[in-house]
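Handout, section B. The chain below has 397 residues.
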Amino acid sequence: MRKLGVTLSRLAHFRRRWSALLNNARRDAGAPSTPSRLTEVASFGSNPGSLRMFTYVPKSVSPNPPLVVVLHGCTQSAAGYDQGSGWSHLADRYGFVLLLPEQTGANNPKGCFNWFLPDDTRRDRGEALSIRQMIETTIVAHKIDRARVFVTGLSAGGAMAAAMLAVYPEVFAAGAIIAGLPYGTASNVQEAFESMFQGRSLSAEGWGNKVRHASAHRGPWPRVSIWHGDADPTVVPMNAESLVQQWINLHAVRAAPVSDVVDGYPRTAWLRDGKPVVESYSITGMAHGTPLAPRQHGGQAGPFLLDVGISSSYHIARFFELTGEENVRSQPADHESKGAGLAPEDVEIIPDERVEILDGPNDPHGRERVGPGGPIDVMAVITKALTQAGLMKPPPS
């Protein structure tokens, strides 16, 4: 009981500090510096997840172009994440089509995809099915090459990208997860907290089985690129390690990985026939966000969009084989890493998905407790707090 009270108190503290940082971040970001480059598509199926659909089609695309699905993080929009990450400029350069689903406030007040809710992350259910319907609509409308469909996302969007790779593995050639979590790590709010703050322990086979049980698919599996800041307090780096275990287990990789340094940061890759099927970047000293190199590859730094001298968007496009370059790098590994553009030492990046839960005596089983003012409906209080914080959908009116 005492341990639960301490946990709730800590979560309330994180929420208060996050709210202050979020207000500062919004003030710093101001209005978008350029208009949205995206086009909204109003009709794309039954849309059981009640999401919005945006696309970007360059003026010049190759016949049967590739498609990249890009999923924003909490507090972000499709247009804002595109502007920050630079994906539409890469689409102009390399001739692929973009699909950018967007969360709605009715689903999640913080704009997070509901990556921890089974009704939204199972095959042919909720938000996952809405995104699948958007993909099919885009494929038909733009004559997309079905063998070159990819997905990537940040934070909650990264966790949702992991879910899409798990529940629709036959749809994707590859995916990339930035500051995200492995599929199956959470099926309720409490497990989401534990996964984000602490990570969850499971064997490689156990993680792999989470994906195997998500569909009838038995391979081949999508290739996966994993990106994480090693100083991320919002989604702890253990989640990146679990993602690696999940996907090397699915790919049944037996050979030792190869390591190198890319733009000053360590990368580890697991190869098959000389080609990376799983790769992992650890961005030294980086907190929670998408790594950028705006001067080299476009994009714009902002909240959770961090100029650290390496463009995850560009290197992910390269991993997806959209740039015409090889993915296996031979740069000798050293232990140097860049620190340019990291958050100042006196600014703490507070988690974007930590929430306020009220202090006080609580029962771990949700039974009614008696406080100074009489009986307390613990579950009602927690439900209200989680709904306000954006980690639960509001109850139907």
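Note. The first helix runs from residue 2 to 29. Compare this with the example in section A.
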